[in-house]
Amino acid sequence: MKKLAIKDVAEATGVAAGTIRMWEQRYGFPEPARTPAGYRVYTEEDVVAIRRVISYRDSGLSVPAALERARSLGGTTDRPSIFAALASGDAPVRPQRLHKPTLVAISRAIEEEAMARAAGPVVIAAFQHERNYRAVEHRYRRLAHVADAVGVFAAFGECRIESDNEPAELPIDASAALGHEWAVIVDAPGYAACLVGWETPEPGRMFEALWTMDPEVVRRAAQVGAALAGAHAPAWSERLQAMLADRPLAVESPVAGLTALTNRMIHYLDAESGPPPA
């Protein structure tokens, strides 16, 4: 891999060498190697990461937020699942225990709202089993006609990416944590929402689930999903990660407390509905 001096990085990105040093000292980003003489040495990946920071700053993020997002995007993810990334992030979303019928209802609401109002969304979903996806495939095909990208994880026999107007079918490896998850993520400039659930081992199809309309959390979920797609579709994954890096966050942020209030309503509805009859 080509080694770059800090002046080379500054020329390639337009960010002053002093600013790059300040980011490293204050925020630990980027993380250059050092020569035996102590000089900083960078790579092309560092150049790409700094360019992402510039894009995030242009979209309105603060320096710390832009640096953290660029750091988390990388080329891969250290999180084995979308649920893990959201539940243990810097601003974790509190999960709640929900029955499968409740997840179905929330998923459908998010999907239909996306079809009704989202312009050019990025949509990522995880269905565990292929049969679960086939039952709602018609909705995702409709979404694909208005979306910038649609990716669907399930236990498919093979990866299938035919065109931009069709959902990308992304296999889940048998041992992958994602095989135990349920996810619907919609990231659009005017609408952001995601639901992610992890199926517990107890009987009755119970899920530890979290959902949010916070644009930054939704973007994090979309980024992790895009990175996880790289296992079977590296070109598609790279294109989607680049798209998300340059994409503005949803302009309509939810009012304070909206997600918490809705969580309470869902909790009461789920408690009343209980598990489906055997």
List the helices and strands and how they pair.
Layout: H1 6-13, H2 17-27, E1 33-34, E2 40-41, H3 44-58, H4 63-73, H5 82-87, E3 96-99, H6 100-117, E4 122-126, H7 130-134, H8 137-146, E5 149-154, E6 168-171, E7 181-188, E8 191-199, E9 206-212, H9 215-228, H10 234-245, H11 258-273
Parallel strand pairs: 4-5, 5-6
Antiparallel strand pairs: 1-2, 3-9, 4-7, 7-8, 8-9
Helix pairs in contact: 3-4, 6-8, 9-10
Summarize it.
The protein is an alpha+beta fold and about 280 residues long. It is about 45% helix and about 15% strand.
Task: Provide a descriptive summary of the structure in words.
This protein has 278 residues and is an alpha+beta fold. Helix content is 45%, strand content 17%. It is built from eleven helices and nine strands. β7 (181-188) and β8 form a beta hairpin. α3 crosses α4, α6 (100-117) runs parallel beside α8 and α9 (215-228) runs antiparallel to α10. The protein starts with 5 loop residues before the first helix and ends in a 5-residue tail after the last helix.
